[in-house]
Amino acid sequence: MNSKIVFTVVFSFLLFSSCSDDDNDSEELTGSGEVSIKFDNGFAGNDLVLGATNTANTNGEVLTITRFSYIVSNFSLVNDMGEEYVFPKDDSYFIINQELEDDNIVLPEIPAGEYTTLKFGVGVDQEKYLQGAEGQGDFLEKAEASNMMWSWQAGYKFLNFEGNFTSETVTEATEFKIHMGSHGSSLDNYKEVSLALPNKLRVGDEIDSSIHLKIDASKILVATNNIQLTEKSVIMVDEVKSPQIAVNTTEMFVVDHLHNGDAHD
Amino acid sequence: MRPVCHGQVASYKEMNISNYIKFVFIAILLVSCSNDDTEYAPINEPLEFVNPTNFPQATYNFEANPPTKLGFELGKKLFYDGKLSSNGFISCGFCHEQAFAFTHHGHQFSHGIDDLEGTRNTPPIQNMAFLNEFAWDGATNHLDLFPIIPITNEVEMGETMTNVISKLQSDPDYPNEFQAAFEDGEVNSENFLKALGQFMAMMISSNSKYDKYIRNEEGGNFSELEKQGLAIFQQKCNSCHSTELFTDNSFRNNGLPPNPQLNDLGREEVSGASTDRYKFKVPSLRNIEKTAPYMHDGRLGTLMSVLNFYDAGVSDSETLDPLLKNDNRLGIGLSLEEKNALVAFLTTLTDETYLNDPRFAEY
């Protein structure tokens, strides 16, 4: 080992040990930093692997998922004083897409502070729809590339969850398709999520931090509402089931851990 | 207006010859830039939207997308450009012809790429700035977003937004035109939809004989028959075809027997609610004389047929509008005399100024 490597090792060690110290409040946070959020998609505690068979859910349905994408939006962070920083709305729409492995979003220029709660929405809110083209940028094209456009109604699929399944009564692999979004002006399926962070997220100059979320896609069918594919396997614009799926979808997000002052590996 | 010169220029006396040449050269450049005809720096200016005095307040948000001369012109060019479709031939204007209040004259259904046919009759484009629901089933509630529907519909223009934008980006002219029309100048879906939005929001039909009658303007003299028609209209039709827009913007089942070959569920396709089955948007009646055939599926050829239908053709169903179920009868009782008067009144809604307005014309 030459001295350069030794120096690097020691320096990294110092860096890591200082980063793992969450209670160090004496250090003044100034300026701003970047917060990245990892959406680590899974299914009932395992990795979500497209095309692979998952374990049966409590309805006895065995799902093979071939597509899993969703829109997350309107991010904000609440600090330990209860003050909320709302990320600029025009830049606050993202598509998480398992096929394209788009699972990490970056929120730049977050004001220095210690944040205790992460908030965001699933889907596109009515306020955004009613802005028309204003502030859209190229989000439409991105949505199109990810199969998240509901072009027949100029709207977005908030969730695109597809694959095939078998159950006790459905023994042949049968296609399922769940496309959830708002129904024009008549049904708003945009929902908000608020997640308490397990410890403080520190952000400031030279301090970029990240939040690692674990997503459990099995919740889409089995959570507050119980959705049985055996009963109906293509759910697109369903006045009853779509709002239930919207509620279930908000329950699939859990904060696993934070990385303070360190880009996510 | 004189071209304004930014930055410091040495006084004339102090200049040597070479500086003098540079000065003259810059001056020429500036002068040529201020010329409207050059493609390098066309001057943009705001376009004023005038709310007709007898209309309600416009609902379109003109602050979010303020119309400008060049934004409007770009929107018009896009409206008439077949590039927006997959085969390069089907423009918006293909199905929306000005002479027929921007409907597809003589076509029951809109024709799209590869001679494919839709299942609904092309609605007119007029007074869109006053509406808050678009398409027969309210598939969008913002005018800006409407073009996505026909562009991406596989039996209409059959294209993707992504492809449209990339075709425009590689076009020799569009990038300059987007640059001139919008502050950030980008060729993206936001500016694309804004340009079309500006064009459509400015398309106002408010100079029919009826408008002149209401505003006591020249050319607004109603015949006795037309006056009689208006009175019947106010008594029997305007609970749905209300306001100066001649629609209350609601979705209703008017009792048209569903065509089993199409089984078009109407508003239910958007809302998912069975209570919305067979409900369609109440259409405006402006320029109605010019927009045959009628109804969402274009099944009726004349205004008289429409009135005959309301008189004697309404069929009952769970979602039939309650207004069409009165006095132990279905529909709206109309005598032949009343029908003739109504047709006379309805033709006063034709606005020749609008149908011939060069601002909206293709050529």
Oligomeric state of the chains? Answer: heterodimer
The count of β-strands of chain B is: 4
Number of domains of chain B: 3
Q: Distance N terminus to C terminus of chain B?
A: 31 Å
Q: Any overview of this molecule?
A:
The complex is a heterodimer of chains A (265) and B (363). Chain A is mainly β and 265 residues long. Chain A has one domain (31-259). Chain A contains four helices and 15 strands. In chain A, strands 3, 4, 5, 7, 10, 11, 12 and 14 form an eight-stranded mixed beta sheet that branches. The longest helix of chain A is centred in the first third of the chain and has 17 residues, at 3-19. Chain A is globular. The two termini of chain A are 25 Å apart. By secondary structure, chain B is an all-alpha fold. Chain B folds into three domains: 1-34; 69-203, Cytochrome Bc1 Complex, Chain D, domain 2; 209-354, Cytochrome c-like domain (Cytochrome Bc1 Complex, Chain D, domain 2), CATH 1.10.760.10. In chain B, strands 1-2 form a two-stranded antiparallel sheet. In chain B, a hairpin with a 2-residue loop joins strand 3 (325-326) and strand 4. In chain B, helix 2 (69-79) crosses helix 7. The longest helix of chain B is centred in the N-terminal third of the chain and has 17 residues, at 17-33. The radius of gyration of chain B is 25 Å and the shape is globular. Mean pLDDT of chain B is 89; it is low at 1-39.
